[in-house]
Structures are given as structure tokens and as C-alpha cells.
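Encode chain A's predicted structure.
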Amino acid sequence: MSGAGPSLPRVGSDETISALGRLGFEWPRTKLGKKQKASGTHITLRKAGEPPRRATVVLAKQEIPAGTLQSILDQGGVSVSAFLLALRGSYARAERKRLRNEGRRVGEALPATD
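Encoded structure for chain A:
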């Protein structure tokens, strides 16, 4: 047995940033306390603590490759299992929103097709 931990899912930058936010990472702020606008292709999230942590996320519409995601988690000192737990909330919220937009509720049976 390899003893490998949980594998990383294929996620985009929005889900990654949301999950890191649940783990205490914050979007950088300006001196006036407003969120900085993302400029360029990456954003660096910060987490206070000893030692302070950073996680640089590529701002892409497509999925982040597993190796890149692992590097982001390593930078931020985040375990894969903690990331997956935080990610579940992101997916659950997105799924509820998708169902609501379709006029359905979570747990509701799919319409019958003939």
C-alpha cells in the first residue's frame, strides 16, 4: 500500500479562493480597508498567524492542475484534507444555487422523462 492521502479534485480558482477563505486566508486590502482589485494573472491571499502564511492563486477560468493546487496548499501550509473539507462548503453552496436557478430544491426528485 502506498499510504497516499486523499487526492486533489480538479477545481477552478474561484472554488480555490473560496475554500482558502474558509480556512482563514484573506483577500489583500488597500490602506482604506477595501479589497484590492486583482491585477494580472495571480492573487496572493494572506493568513495572519505565527508564522504568517501566503497562498498565491492563479486567476484562471479553467481548472487548476493538481500539481499547481498542491503547490498552492504547500505555500499556505494547508493540508489536503482541510482543503477538501473547506471545499465541500463551496460545492454545496454552488449546487444549492444551481438547483435554485432551475426552480428545484436540494433532495427533490428529478422530473420523470418518457
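The CA atoms of residues 15 and 90 lie 6 Å apart.
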